[in-house]
């Protein structure tokens, strides 16, 4: 029922910045907790960040704290991931995800909280 399309990925040098966007087809976008995950070749998918329905609360993986910022614009049905001071180890396919009806960030770092997933956008950071 919810279609998610990521954009904004690309090639960037270490220390650079990139902003990812995730556009949702759902008009009641504000009912969904939104999250970002990433997956590199040969590695498991890992949690990056999550944001509550109103945008008042956020959660981050330790590896990106202080460098990445998640935000959302419910009027535009879009969630963003601002990535600063990028490192080569940030290279991965970044996927946007939406929960079904969760009202908080409990278990927001677990994949099974999210019912809908985008196809992903590639982020490559060169050294």
Rounded Rg: 13 Å
Shape: globular
Number of strands: 11
Largest sheet: 7 strands, mixed
Indicate the structural class: mainly beta
Q: Which band does the percent of strand residues land in?
A: over 45%
Distance between the termini: 40 Å
SSE sequence, one letter per element:
EEEEEEEEEEE
Instruction: Report low-confidence residues grouped into runs of 5 or more.
Output: none
Work out the helicity level. under 10%
Describe the fold and architecture.
The strands form two sheets. Strands 2, 4, 5, 6, 9, 10 and 11 form a seven-stranded mixed beta sheet that branches. The chain has a four-stranded antiparallel beta sheet with strand order 1-3-8-7, with no helix packed on it. The protein has strands spanning 4-7, 10-13, 18-24, 34-39, 46-51, 58-60, 68-73, 78-83, 92-99, 114-117, 121-126. The model has no long low-confidence stretch (mean pLDDT 95). With 127 residues, it is an all-beta fold. Strand 7 and strand 8 (78-83) form a beta hairpin.
